[in-house]
Amino acid sequence: MPRLGLRARVSTTVAVGALVLSTAIATLSYQFIRSSLLDERRIVVWRTAYYDASYVEARIGAPDTDYVQVLSSFNPGRGRTPVLVVAGTPYRLDVAGVDIPRDLAEMVEGGQAARQIVHTPQGPVMIIGIPLATTQYYEIVSLRELDNNLRQIGLVLTLVAGGVTLAAAALGWYTGRRALRPLASVAEAAQGIAAGDLNARLDPQAEPDLERLAASFNNMVDQLQQRIERDRRFAADVSHELRSPLQTLAAAAAVLERRQESLDARTADAARLVVEEVDRFQQLVTDLLEITRAESELDLSEVDVLALARDQCKRREIDPDVVTVLNREGDATWRADARRVEQILGNLLENAQRHGGGVVAVRLYQEGGYNVIEVDDDGPGVLPENRELIFRPFVRGSNAERRGDTDGAGLGLAIVARLAESHGGRATVLDRPGGGARFRVELGRQS
Q1: What confidence category does residue 322 fall into, taking pLDDT thresholds of 50, 70 and 90?
Q2: Which end of the chain, N or C, is more open, meaning fewer C-beta atoms within 10 Å of its C-beta?
């Protein structure tokens, strides 16, 4: 069972608390109102019954008294039925009325006035028994109206309790949302940092209760930014310092390469290996410098990406006609950093040639808020588990050997991903319909 979120737990807790409290208050209120109304009704009924008993007693002195006539000679009111018991014989106006409970009758016959509430199919009634000199007088009073009033009061109190519970749940949800709003800003800042925006910070004054959290968060980001900047400067400095000795080695290697014919076979092989490794080392340093430069600000201008793409194809002896623009106007002039876009195109084309069996198609188009570059190759494709790994530095994926030779340090696609991120986009790889891989680079449109 999935665990409830913090906002849901706050809302549920407040709602349950309100339900318990409102139920307790409603129950106590109902009991108090019921007791008050019953006590008030008992007093009124008791006084009226004594008055009626006095009236009846004054008219039953003669032995030949018609007791039914006496009962019918006065009007006790709606919902009140008088009963006169003489020598154990009840006299009443209604034929099928409520029977007098035996325990109540015994108390009245013993000379003690008493009352009792009896529940009947027609509703509750209160029976008042008053002993007279020679008889017993009973008055049956209907409590149906009082019972209906109590039911309505109970219904109202139940609805109030339910309404209070719903209101408390809504208040808890709103309070939880308000309480978690500062944490939403923390989440947004964390997402921005994860996306590469190291300038994201929290305002310590926005929420006094979270001032310590905001200060700690900002301090953490400051330290992270400083560490990344130190690492970036270190990589840039190392790469830059390596260029001078590499240039010397490259010059010496060029001399060895020109004189291979005058060397013996073993020395010539050694010289060839030195030349190849120096070239590879130079490319590695160049790639490292490109990665460090990807973090710098964009040098934006109006770039004819179609011309850039065809130029990169010509440099690699690829048919320029593989480049197509999918926009209706056939124009691919984007506002971007020309050098970085050129690097992206070059690395994608080189990757397709080296590892993907050649370039099949290059597409340029706009989609939503992005400028899109797609390069299709004719290789074996990329396994799903490697589609994120191949964009990491020094990683080619477990199927790199199947995609061609393994020359290089695995920085070409990592540079593409960094340059795409610097434009507010991303780099991905998909399956090409019909086989092969489709590398897709999205560059956020720059204003």
Answers
A1: very high
A2: N
